[in-house]
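Good morning,

Attaching, inline, the backbone tokens for the sequence recovery test we're adding to the shared suite. The designed sequence is right after.
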């Protein structure tokens, strides 16, 4: 679970009028729903991206006095930086492609999205997720549900089992031929080595933060990395799986008892945040950040097609590297924000990971 504080307001927002225009354009039924309210989803977890915002839009049938459905809308800056220069989030067309693959190949509750890059309604690329029969007031993030004590032990085990099953399906059913950042087409020089890919991604983040003047133990990290590479630590990954990477309990929503269809606190929605998804090692998921996964999550994962995550001590060391990578990526994104963001949890994760790597086994 991430522990970042709530950020300040975004520098751009989605009004009811703008949301209405998007709904009018992309819902093709003859009778159009009415936009009831627009709520920006708090980007307080690892999935925060400085160039994108996610909104939930409550919808009501015409002449009704209350909303009965909602949809997600993602807005993203259309700027596409040169990926050779730095580490950048996935462009929205790439996110759309990934979400469509997830929708087609798994039971994960993500609607098949509609991509709008015309910028005729707004100066942003738009991802529109079709409505589902639950409204904003009837669900809560899994992170907040745990903090508020809303979940019984049985509820928590059920949710963990569901999450594990979803990741088991994701990693076994949505796969690729090469490792690295997703693209709309085939890369000119595809990588078939996860060790080479991960080392390059990590070094790219390190170089960017170092140039920016961020004080980190760069020499220690690079020394540990050279040793890990010499022991082929990351070379045990043969098939590139789609890894959500930054998805956390802040991005997973469960239904509240107030919803008429709710019989248990099951997963009701997952935010369409795939800005940092990549083709890589399933162990990279932030949901597997120690002490996770729970026994229930691991059970659901294995039963739904996932392979055992940690068998040997060296794989625990590999997971430490992935925690370090997550900390670096989160720090980079929060430093890129136009509003003040809480960076301390990312710095703490980096420091803890580097300290642990000093004595971590490579056998």
């Amino acid at each position: 679970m991430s522990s970042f504080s709530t950020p300040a307001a975004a520098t751009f927002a989605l009004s009811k009028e703008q949301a209405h225009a998007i709904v009018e354009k992309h819902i093709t039924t003859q009778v159009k729903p009415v936009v009831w309210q627009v709520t920006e989803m708090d980007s307080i977890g690892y999935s925060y991206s400085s160039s994108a915002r996610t909104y939930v839009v409550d919808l009501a049938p015409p002449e009704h006095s209350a909303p009965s459905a909602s949809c997600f809308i993602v807005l993203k800056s259309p700027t596409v930086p040169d990926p050779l220069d730095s580490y950048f989030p996935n462009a929205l067309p790439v996110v759309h492609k990934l979400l469509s693959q997830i929708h087609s190949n798994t039971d994960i509750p993500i609607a098949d999205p509609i991509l709008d890059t015309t910028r005729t309604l707004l100066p942003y690329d738009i991802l529109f997720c079709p409505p589902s029969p639950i409204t904003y007031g009837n669900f809560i993030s899994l992170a907040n549900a745990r903090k508020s004590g809303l979940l019984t032990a049985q509820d928590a085990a059920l949710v963990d089992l569901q999450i594990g099953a979803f990741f088991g399906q994701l990693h076994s059913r949505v796969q690729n031929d090469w490792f690295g950042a997703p693209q709309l087409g085939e890369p000119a020089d595809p990588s078939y080595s996860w060790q080479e890919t991960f080392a390059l991604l990590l070094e790219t983040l390190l170089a960017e933060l170092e140039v920016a003047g961020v004080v980190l133990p760069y020499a220690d990290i690079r020394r540990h990395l050279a040793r890990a590479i010499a022991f082929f630590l990351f070379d045990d990954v043969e098939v590139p799986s789609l890894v959500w990477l930054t998805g956390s309990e802040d991005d997973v929503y469960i239904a509240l008892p107030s919803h008429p269809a709710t019989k248990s606190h099951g997963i009701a929605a997952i935010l369409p945040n795939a800005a940092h998804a990549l083709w890589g090692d399933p162990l990279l998921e932030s949901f597997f950040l120690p002490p996770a996964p729970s026994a229930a999550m691991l059970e659901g994962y294995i039963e739904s097609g996932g392979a055992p995550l940690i068998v040997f001590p060296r794989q625990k060391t590999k997971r430490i590297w992935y925690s370090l990578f997550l900390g670096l990526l989160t720090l980079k994104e929060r430093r890129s924000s136009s509003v003040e963001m809480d960076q301390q949890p990312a710095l703490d994760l980096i420091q803890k990971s580097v300290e642990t790597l000093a004595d971590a086994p490579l056998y």
